[in-house]
Amino acid sequence: MTEQSPDRIRCLFSADAIAKRVDEVAGEIAASEPHELLIVVVLKGGYMFAADLSRALSRYGVRLEVEFISLSSYGSGRRSTGEVRVLWDIGTEVSGRDVLIIDDVLDSGLTLKFARDLMRQRGARRVAIAALIDKPVGRRVDIEGDYVGFTCPDYFVVGYGMDAGHAYRELPFVGVLVSEDEVGG
Ligand code: IMP
Ligand code: MG
Fold first, then answer.
1. pTM, full prediction
2. Tens digit of each residue's pLDDT (9 = 90 or more) over 107-123
3. Of 110, 145, 147, 177, which has the fewest Cβ atoms less than 10 A away?
4. Cβ atoms within 10 Å, residue 5
């Protein structure tokens, strides 16, 4: 068994629970009647949530365009260091449009605040944030998600797009890594 095999991940939100919640969130977004909606997916962690959310939005009759942005905070630890840089930018104008930024986790808030400020500076009509997981305990800047899948304690979560050391993004559920001593036999 490798050091971090999937059997050392405790499920927090099952695939079924996620599917149900994604559908509800799509309903909330559809109810806001977005105008020329552009979704901006924050790579890499937001890809799975965005894929499911955009299909759910389609079922609610919402038309949209998709762009991707890759943002990175300086440093390689599990906590943002404060400075955010654009590694890959979107390829379209946002002026006058409703932009929905989609990411996996809203933790310190630094990444999504940066992304929201950037879209506002570029003249978006409205900018909303959808995050699958909200970890309010980690917050370092004043920001809230407009659409949140699940609120979670200050765990480091993996799966459904989220990684630990580049692993586990493919898992269909969200889980928490269980340490050796918790595993027991
Ligand atoms: P921020 O601290 O809100 O800026 O979060 C920045 C990024 O850190 C998120 O978009 C995630 O990619 C990553 N992140 C934060 N918490 C977790 C976690 O529990 N698991 C996996 N990635 C996380
Ligand atoms: Mg991310």
1. 0.92
2. 999 999 999 999 999 99
3. 177
4. 9
